[in-house]
What we know:
The chain is of the alpha+beta class. 53% of the residues lie in helices and 15% in strands. It is built from 7 helices and 5 strands. The chain has helices spanning 2-23, 28-38, 41-50, 88-96, 104-115, 125-133, 140-145, and strands at 54-58, 64-69, 75-79, 84-85, 119-122. Strands 4-3-2-1-5 form a 5-stranded mixed beta sheet. The longest helix has 22 residues, at 2-23. Residues 76-114 form the SWIM-type domain. InterPro entries: Znf_SWIM (IPR007527). This is SWIM-type domain-containing protein.
Amino acid sequence: MAFSLRYVADQLFSEVRFAKEQHGHLTDELLSALHCVFHxxxxxxxxxxxxxxxxxxxxxxxxVLHQVTGSSNQVYNCLISGxxxxxxxxxxxxxxxxxxxxxKHLLAVHLAEALRESKKQDISDEDFVAYMCYDSSxxxxxxxxxxx
Length: 148
Ligand SMILES: [Zn+2]
């Protein structure tokens, strides 16, 4: 079931991309379909996209990491290719309890990519490693510098 729901999610992300290109915005029908799959996290994710809280970080070797600034200014690292987020909700709700397909941050990343609303920043491969190994919740100051 999880596999088929993930497939539906990918189809919806494709439709989001198409709707943006064709109409410039999401249709009510598409929003309803997204809500059926993602429920409450959808609204939070759309807020994050509206506030342009998603940054796409790319390394010279082509690695991609997204950083999402959450509602409490906490920054979470997301890997869109492997569907992973460093937030506690992802660990608990997605990995442990398997209640959701993705957390609001990861959903926001997928939507921001489909809507082309991600901010972009180039980083070194060394920075990529540092971000993946660094617990952003431990140092709020560093996270703010990344979003200036
Ligand atoms: Zn998350």
